[in-house]
Amino acid sequence: MFFFSLFLLAAMTYMIYVRYYPIKGIPCIDMNQLSNETKKVKLDIRDYNTSSKNAITDAVSLPVAYLKRHYTQIPSKQIYLIASDKIERNLAIRMLKQKGFEVMGYTITGCGCHGKLKDVA
Description:
This protein is 47% helix and 17% strand. By secondary structure, it is an alpha/beta fold. The protein has one domain (2-120): Rhodanese-like domain (Oxidized Rhodanese, domain 1, 3-Layer(aba) Sandwich). The protein has a 4-stranded parallel β-sheet, with helices on one face. The longest helix has 19 residues, at 2-20.
């Protein structure tokens, strides 16, 4: 019984780590800066329902749920992520790094952090 409880605790800890612990060294980039980059692919990992309402030009739309099966459709190894929340971002970055992609940065839609940073500076 002790080993089962220990195994269950380890599994739950791992699942929480993968979903909620942020990845270090990947910068948050403003959407305006993303429009200037032409060589790197913009990967929109939001759900189709969300991304269709606020479409981003020149972005490859591939939701997080489909990354594991369709990651070969991403045309470049250097990408920028467009996510709707931090959990999607964390899951996608970990999955893409395992597949050999280099995530150059990310942006979270609807995040007001860039406006707040400008007001402080």
